[in-house]
């Protein structure tokens, strides 16, 4: 194991003491927090934002969860408030871009913002999804989605997170992994950069 992230809640009294405690271990690389659980209201709280600044100053990462249109917009808001914070967007391939015009406009705005923010990364994993009571396993089904994500983030900002065992509710882990492996193997020999100060990048939780 080269690293781990833990679940701490910014904006609570115990956040900083626990962060200081866990950060003493070099394997501790950040926190996982499900932005959007409170409708983004926490971003209006100075104590919440201050704790995220502490996280950034410690050179640690914020790992988000359960991507949605609202969550992507909140990631942009967090990045606006704490520009030096590295953020990992959760398994984006499984999120289908919205068709509603307002939601699509928000989605497109977030993706446009991500393109120009090298401190924001994405998990190019959890590709499996149910369509008409079937779960496609052909790379060609997932290729357009992966192409879009790679175009926005670039090869150096795409991570793989297995989401095991949660992903097994669709199909066993090797099925989804094979799709992603086949897609990126075809890109040739590439060596993504670290997301943590020149050392091997840590595998984010999930």
Could you characterize what this model shows?
The chain has 206 residues and is an alpha/beta fold. It has a single domain, classed as Alpha-Beta Barrel (TIM Barrel), CATH 3.20.20. Helix content is 37%, strand content 10%. It has helices spanning 15-23, 46-57, 69-81, 101-115, 139-153, 173-185; strands at 4-6, 28-32, 61-63, 86-89, 120-123, 158-159. It has a six-stranded parallel beta sheet with strand order 1-2-3-4-5-6. Strand 3 (61-63), helix 3 (69-81) and strand 4 (86-89) form a beta-alpha-beta unit. It is globular. It starts with a strand and ends in a 21-residue tail after the last helix.
Q: What tags apply to this protein structure?
A:
TIM Barrel; 10% strand; globular; 206 residues; alpha/beta
List low-confidence stretches.
195-205
The secondary-structure element order is EHEHEHEHEHEH
Structural class: alpha/beta
Say how many strands there are: 6
- Biggest β-sheet description: 6 strands, parallel
How far is the first residue's CA from the last residue's CA?
14 Å
Mean pLDDT: 88
CATH C-level name: Alpha Beta
CATH topology: TIM Barrel
How large, in whole angstroms, is the Cα Rg? 17 Å
Number of domains: 1
What portion of the residues fall into strands of 2 or more residues?
5-15%
Q: Please identify, by name, the CATH architecture.
A: Alpha-Beta Barrel
What's the number of helices? 6
Q: Order of strands in the sheet with the most strands?
A: 1-2-3-4-5-6
Helix content: 25-40%
Rough outline: globular
CATH homologous group name: Metal-dependent hydrolases
């Amino acid at each position: 194991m080269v690293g781990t992230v833990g679940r701490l809640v910014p904006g609570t009294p115990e956040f900083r003491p626990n962060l200081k405690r866990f950060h003493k271990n070099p394997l501790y690389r950040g926190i996982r927090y499900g932005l959007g659980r409170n409708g983004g209201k926490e971003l209006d709280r100075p104590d919440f934002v201050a704790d995220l600044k502490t996280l950034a100053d410690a050179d640690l990462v914020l790992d988000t969860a359960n991507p949605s249109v609202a969550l992507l917009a909140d990631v942009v808001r967090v990045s606006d408030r704490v520009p030096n914070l590295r953020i990992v967007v959760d398994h984006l391939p499984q999120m289908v871009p919205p068709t509603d015009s307002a939601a699509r406009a928000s989605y497109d705005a977030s993706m446009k913002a991500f393109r120009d923010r090298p401190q924001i990364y994405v998990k190019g994993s959890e590709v499996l999804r149910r369509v008409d009571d079937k779960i496609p396993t052909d790379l060609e089904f997932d290729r357009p989605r992966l192409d879009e994500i790679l175009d926005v983030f670039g090869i150096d900002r795409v991570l793989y997170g297995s989401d095991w065992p949660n992903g097994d509710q669709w199909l066993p882990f090797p099925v989804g992994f094979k799709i992603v492996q086949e897609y990126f193997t075809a890109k040739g020999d590439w060596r993504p950069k670290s997301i943590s100060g020149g050392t091997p990048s840590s595998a984010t939780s999930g």
